[in-house]
Amino acid sequence: MSANALAGRSGVNRQVITNVLKGAVWADIMTVVELEGALGVMLWPRHVDWDLAALVDLSPGGEEG
């Protein structure tokens, strides 16, 4: 699939896609989400299985961990 076709399917700017593919930039989380939806595959390994409560304590005075 071309960068132009992926941009049209995902709504992500073609130049952003090109820059990510070249390794010139890191994709932000929303870009990853849009690309995953357009491609039908997970690009960020197993992120849907993460236990977010264990990663971040959101209680008052809690610390990110």
What does this structure look like?
The protein is mainly α and 65 residues long. It is built from four helices and no strands. It has helices at residues 3-10, 14-22, 29-39, 52-55. The chain is elongated.
Q: Report the average pLDDT across residues.
A: 85
Note the run of SSEs as H and E.
HHHH
Helix segment count?
A: 4
Percent of residues in helices comes to 40-55%
Using only CA atoms, what is the Rg?
15 Å
Shape: elongated
Poorly predicted ranges: none
Main sheet properties: none
Short description:
With 65 residues, this protein is mainly alpha-helical.
Task: Describe the SSE topology.
Elements: H1 3-10, H2 14-22, H3 29-39, H4 52-55
Helix pairs in contact: 1-2
Short descriptors:
0% strand, mainly alpha, 65 residues
